[in-house]
Each structure stands twice: as structure tokens, then as C-alpha cells.
Amino acid sequence: MTTLSTTRPDLDALADTYDQQGYVLVKGLLSKEEAAEYRGRSHELIASLDRGDDPTWDAAADVAMGQATSLQHLHDAQFYDAAFTRLLTDPRFTSVAAAVLRTPNVQLHHSKMFIKPPENGSPFPPHQDHPFFPHTHHRVAAAIFHFDDAPEVKGCVRIAPGSHTAGPREHDPQGSFHLPDFPVDQLEPMEAEAGDVLFFTYLTVHSSGVNVSDEARTTWLVQFRDPADPPLTDQHNHSLGQGLILAGSDPTGRAGQA
Question: Could you tell me if 160 and 244 are in contact, meaning their C-beta atoms sit under 8 angstroms apart?
């Protein structure tokens, strides 16, 4: 597993690792205290909105070996709590985001909070994010903020290092886009601690396991892009705040159009 500390981050080295491996796990981007605060806010938001919808993919049943699982989520947390708005533009995050995109300009695509409940928190089968919102130059990335510890037993993210170099792959669209034949032995667990942030390109194959522990796993996913990379379709353009500039500026004047 490739990790980097943010005590004094070498952003050039971080970007080189990201280019080579398709991901980098940045340790301690948030303090333990900050992560705990965001964890509390996440659970309070989910409980207060009480929407009851479950985003578990139909394709997750194969990963769970037929076991019934569940998942809680919330799109666009920054529209419900200003703490998440501040985190989107926190220089500790945006400096890394800009480094991996190799541009000073960072634009929000969407955000989504996930809570994997204890004992049966839903998994995700192997997939790339690319088919959900393909872009012209593939300068699109994700950051997963860990608000509590994510050992393997809690269904942590798994990454296939270097898988991004093969480019877009043909996905099975049934039960949500996934790669049913991807070799699971190529997926490495990205165990993380509260405050760590996992960055990866939308071409990197990744998955996650079932949370079989007695504690919830709480994360916030932020998808971001180079604003100069135009989308190929109008898929996934419903997210609130899409087009928001998190760092730098938009040289295209296309904000909010896709």
C-alpha cells in the first residue's frame, strides 16, 4: 500500500505515486479530533433527514455471498451543513487534489456520504467510476475522507494498483456498472485510520467489502475534476453544486453546464 504523510507533504512525490499506482492514501490529512467531529455530524445528518433509501447495488449480492446487507448515504452534505462546505475548500485537501490532477484548478463534480452499518454494511463490487460520468481526458478523481477507522473487517476500500493504465474497461451494467470477472487477488485492502484520505483516479479499479464489525464505517466521497476536461455525456449532472471551483479558477467558463 502506498501512503504519504501530510506532516510536510511532498506534493510532487505524491503526484508521481498517484500517476504510477492510480491512487495514494494520505495519512492524517485531518486530525483525529476533526474526524470525530465530522463523524458525529455525518450520523446526525443521516438520522435527522431519515430518508430511508438504501443505495446498495444489486450487483453487491455476489460480493456478500447472498447475505442481506444495507447502506446509508447522503448526496451533497455541503448543502446541509457548512462544515462540509469548509472542508471542500480546505487547503489541506485542495493542495493534494490539485497535485494529483496536475493543475491549479480543481472543480467539484459531486459528493456523497456513506455509512456502512455494523454487522452487514453493504459492499461494492469491482468497478471503475468512469462509466458513471466519462470525461474526455480522464482528469477526474475521487477523495474518500475517513471519519472513523476503516480496517478490513469494516469493509474498507480495495484498490487494484496500476489498473488505471489499461484505460476504460467494459462494464456489466446490470445491477450498476461493475466488473464481474476482475481478478479479486489484484485488489489490495486500503486499511485507513480516522483522518486519512484516499485519492484515486476514476480509471482505477476499486471495490469494498462487507462491514462485519460491531461499528459503523463512516466516509465522505468527493469526486473532483480539472475544469478543462469536458464531460462526454450528461450523466450524473444532477448533483447540487456541480461546477463549483474548489481551487484556482475555471478557464472555460463552463461552470454548472455539466
Answer: no
For 24, the enclosing helix (H) or strand (E) is strand 23-27
At 184, phi and psi to the nearest 5? -70, -20
Neighbours of 8 (CB within 10 A): 5
Cα radius of gyration (the chain): 17
Distance, in Å, from the CA atom of 25 to the CA atom of 42, rounded to the nearest integer, reads 22
| Predicted TM-score (pTM) above 0.90 | yes
Which H or E element spans position 72? strand 72-75
The DSSP 8-state label assigned to residue 256 in this structure reads: T
Task: Give the model confidence (pLDDT) of 166-182 as tens digits.
Answer: 999 999 988 888 899 99
